[in-house]
Amino acid sequence: MTVRRIVANLQATDPQAGRAFYGELLGLDLVMDHGWILTFASGEQAPAQVSIASQGGSGTPVPQLSIEVDNIDEIHAKAKLMGLEIVYDITDEPWGVRRFYVRDPFGTIVNILSHGKS
Q1: Mind listing the pLDDT tens digit for each residue in 25-83?
Q2: Beta-ladder partners of 32
Q3: What's the number of domains the chain is made of?
Q4: CA angle, 85 as apex, 101 and 47 as ends, to 5°?
Q5: How far apart are CA 54 and CA 58, in angstroms?
Q6: What whole-number distance in Å separates Cα of residue 79 and Cα of residue 25?
Q7: Does a structural domain hold residue 1?
Q8: Which of 9, 23, 58, 102 registers the highest number of CB atoms within 10 A of its CB?
Q9: DSSP 26
């Protein structure tokens, strides 16, 4: 048996509210829209992963999603301009990631990160 992909499903009363966050902020493409469900994707291929954590590291809460990007500082600046709630400000962590937490329109804490400085 092979796990081919893992999809995060976030509950929302108005899925359309995700367009600005996942489409504009993160640059993901809208690949499916049935009204009651929107699916955003990138063209990148990545291994399927699930993380199980007792904390988010550095004393932070466990984020529900982690999204790795190649332009962390640009995304952070854009999130601030959009007036999004930064839950944990941009930080270079001792284990080699640069990251920040932002709350999406549905209340989900999203860990935006890059490995090494970008």
Answers
A1: 999 999 999 999 999 999 999 999 999 999 999 999 999 999 999 999 999 999 999 99
A2: 39
A3: 1
A4: 30
A5: 12
A6: 7
A7: no
A8: 102
A9: T
pLDDT at 117 over 80: no
How far apart CA 101 and CA 37 sit, in angstroms, is 24
Mean pLDDT estimate for the chain: 95
Give the whole-angstrom CA distance, residue 114 versus residue 67.
9
Q: Which domain holds residue 39?
A: 15-44+53-115
**In DSSP terms, which residues pair with 67 in a beta bridge?**
112
Q: Is residue 5 part of a domain?
A: no
Q: Residue 107 maps to which CATH number?
A: 3.10.180.10
Phi and psi based region of residue 56 (left: phi greater than 0; alpha: psi -120 to 50; beta: remaining): alpha
Position 7 in a domain: no
Structure tokens at 55: 């904390």
In a domain, 63, yes or no: yes
